[in-house]
Amino acid sequence: MRVLDEALAEEYALVESIAREVLRGYGFREFRTPIVERTELFVRSVGESTDIVGKEMYTFEDRAGRSMTLRPEGTAPVVRAVVERGLRNTRLPLKLFYIGPFFRYERPQKGRYRQFHQIGAELIGDARPEADLEVIQVLVEFLSACGFSGLEVALQTLGDDDSRSRFRAALLGHLEPVRESLSAESQARLASNPLRILDSKADADRAAVADAPSMETFLSESARVHFERLQELLQDAGIAYRVEPGLVRGLDYYTGTVFEISSADLGSQDALVGGGRYDNLVAELGGPPTPAIGFAIGLDRVCEAMPESATSDQPRVAILALSDAAEARAAETARALRRAGLVAELANMTSGVGKSLQLADRRGSGWAVLIGDDELADGLWSVKNLASGEQQSVGDLSALVELIQEGSLKP
Ligand code: AMP
User: Fold this and answer.
1) Nearest to residue 295, comparing CAs of 146, 136, 401, 410?
2) 327 CA to middle of ligand 1, Å?
3) Which of 46, 51, 116, 269 to mutate for ligand 1's pocket (most ligand atoms within 8 Å of CB)?
């Protein structure tokens, strides 16, 4: 588990605010589910044979002897909640997003944490490829707003139930004869989830799947049409993508379109985002059959990889009351500057003006506003740029704010 200190927490908050703005612009509304859920929810939806359920969940018994789990992912809790609320009376599509901590007992390594953070969205009740495009578009817009360039969408379809069961049979036909050459993990997956062998990183498995049959051959007509239409839509929208045959995603509830987005600037590390369709999950959790698609952004990953330029620093100002009489006006000035979006701190004057200015500079204030008896008498503010040492007087608050926001003292 990791502490987010004040510098990190501010960065996270900034990225979260970018996400909120972009998602709201597309009509998504924020949703918050409990951190702790019944274990059963994840076993049923994410799937028993997945790494998450098999070995990564923080599971414990509560005082009533029920098995509870710290949520390892966000889709199942959101879907369960909207199913419980009643989907039949909901005007679809339902467009929701969530931001918060998630928990997986993973081997600690760079960029993977046991408490990590995701921003996720779910578009429930729209089966069209246009819905797939919309969630990918939101993501591209969000990542661009964070300063990432060279974004690439890796795309695949897992087909509908029919396509998938035919593909599964063909894949088993290909892998069973070479069972002995597979990694132990993949041998176990032959029975539980053979598609996952396709994204195994083990050399032995890679060799075995190199000439495996491809999903494409087994797609039903409607699954093929959907996938082709999505590719046309992406091209029309100018979004770069590539079809990635090995992309299967690690959770059982996925159906149809799956995708990951990475940035070409980042080399071969983890994807920033993963997502896909889960057209059966709503019904599996007790709702009416309802198609849906969603994604989860790895917030930790985004913050670590985000280009510096996107992190915005609010201008910081120290306010110095040079006499007791000036204190009320100094406090009033600080409030006005804060309302204008600046960070304003009242200086502790016990050590004198020189020391206060020095301290303000060390604390990262770019500016000091000085208010003494002269400024009080004349209704002025003296503003000092702490980097250059230049100082000037201004006669009204809006000019003061403007001067600081523009970042330079005019002659
Ligand atoms: P997933 O829910 O596994 O599809 O992951 C979605 C995104 O969450 C990935 O792109 C990762 O960046 C991020 N993520 C998943 N697990 C962790 C973790 N343990 N630590 C940090 N980020 C994670």
Assistant:
1) 136
2) 50
3) 116
Q: How would DSSP label each residue in 256-274?
A: EEEEEEEEGGGTTS--SEE
- The average pLDDT across 277-306 equals 95
Q: At 268, which amino acid appears?
A: S
The per-residue pLDDT for 411 is 42
End-to-end, the C-alpha distance of the chain in Å comes to 52
Q: How many CB atoms lie within 10 A of CB 154?
A: 17
pLDDT at 23 over 60: yes
Q: Tell me the C-alpha distance between 158 and 139, whole Å.
A: 21
Nearest CA to ligand 1 atom 17: 112
Residue nearest to atom 16 of ligand 1 (CA): 112
CB of 71 closer than 6 angstroms to any ligand 1 atom: no
pTM for this predicted structure = 0.87
CA torsion angle for 44, 48, 52, 54 (degrees, to 10)?
140
Which residue type does 402 have?
E
Residue 75 has phi, psi (to 5 degrees) of -70, -50
The predicted structure's pLDDT at residue 104: 97
Q: Is the model's pLDDT at 310 over the cut of 60?
A: no
